[in-house]
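Q: My labmate handed me this sequence with no annotations at all. I'd like to see what the chain might look like in three dimensions before we decide whether it's worth expressing. Could you predict it?
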Amino acid sequence: MVKKNIWFWVIQSCCWLFIAFTALTFSPLRGGNINSQIIFFLVYTLVGFVAGYIYCYKLEKINPDEITTSQFLLYPLVGSLGIGILFTIVDFTLGGFHLPNSTTNLFVLFLENIWIVIPCFFFYHLYRFATIYQERKQRTLVAENLLQISELENLKKQLNPHFLFNALNSIKALTLFDGVKARESIIQLSDLLRLSLNLGEQQRATLSEEIRLAENYLALEKLRYDNRLTYEFNVNADLDNVLIMPMSLNTLLENAVKHGIGKLKSGGKILISASTEQGVVTITVENSGNYDPKPKSDEGGIGLENLRKRLELQYGDKASFTIMNKNKMVVSTIKMPF
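A: Here is what I predict for the chain of 338 residues:
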């Protein structure tokens, strides 16, 4: 939707007032009854303003990316023809015009009604193009800055000494009684760090990469929480190549473990699921616990708020993120196009 400031409406009003004044100047009403002139002028202005607003409203329902160059040129002509018909009707009903003797004369009168309207429509299209271009440019700049910040926060979080200390400490304990399990955990930690670094540099990641990162992360956290943490994946294999925003699933899991399982003495479970419908992938993480929309503190890392911003900047209003309490579980859901 194109944002319209006060100057847009001022210019629009001036355009329709000028068109109404021009129509009145060439109308048979000129020099006649003043009340008829005022009514004709006001009706002409109102018809133009309302029809122009409806045209703008309908056009903004269309995605700018789907409008071709030919359509960009065609729409102003169609809009001008439509308003030209309305103005012709006003001319014959209120403007004192009489029906011409031939179709040719009627067509000439119709052309006279639209020639001055066309510049207004082209003005709107140029304004819309300039506004959309500026918004996209601003969004790109913000996205690039946020991406750089996110990458730095990703690296800081991935190399967080507390996480590494807990994982390494758990692996050290394993070496005393289960060498095979300890070696597997070292491989998982190595794979997790490698995947995190690689995904942090990508604009999109496959769902299979995110799932593998999630499996390594939860496996290492289970070393620390043991029976307090159980988890289950419900993701079909045919979704492996679906492209999503990188580090999105991992953000939900980190929040689930830290603010959900970690705060429960008896621990809990985490359920991860994914599905697709009509070009949209839905990723859901359910965890035991209670979601507090106003936490007492907000520690570092990517965080849920940063996740919302990344989704908005990368997908606009085509993506969404929600988190709520449901049936004694915290349900976090991401929807994004793929």
